[in-house]
Design goal:
This protein is α+β, with helices and mostly antiparallel strands. The protein has six helices and four strands, in the order H-E-H-E-H-H-H-E-H-E. It has a four-stranded antiparallel β-sheet with strand order 2-3-1-4, sandwiched between helices.
Amino acid sequence: MSSENAAQTEFLRQGGVGTSVVVVFNDRKRLKQCQECLAERQPPLAELVAIGAQESSLDDVPRLNPAVARRNRQRSMARWLLPFGFMAGLTFTYITDLETFAFAGAWSQHLIGALLGLVSGWMGSFAAAASVSSEDDDRIRGLRNRLEEGSWLLLAETASGVDMPWLLLQQHRPLAVVRLADR
């Protein structure tokens, strides 16, 4: 039976996230009861994290940390902006025939232009990542406020194709259920 659970857990990791919700509780006892019921459920949830006093910190959960989302966006943007900037810098130096870096020699001045284009692509990835806000930012800000008011949060994520146990969640009488993703 344990090898079957291990195979199922690996399948859930590879399948991606289906539905992601944060359940808000005003009582830690209810949070723990709900967490235990969801942990025993088959098929198991892809992720189940309790957040609050004496639990995980909100900043420790990558799904609920805007700084982690911004860093991931920046890395994703850099993946294509760096080569594009390099090629744009190289192309620009060949097209314009400017001799800004003539002291470096004929081929080196094109290389310097390409490297400057690469650096501008890297800087652009930071600017682009900071200027785009996630669609979940407002919801996460509201959850952060609930946490500061003394509530507890339970992040529950199902694998793709697995239904969220809505009735089970409602039986534990949460203050709110905030849906983050539904894929």
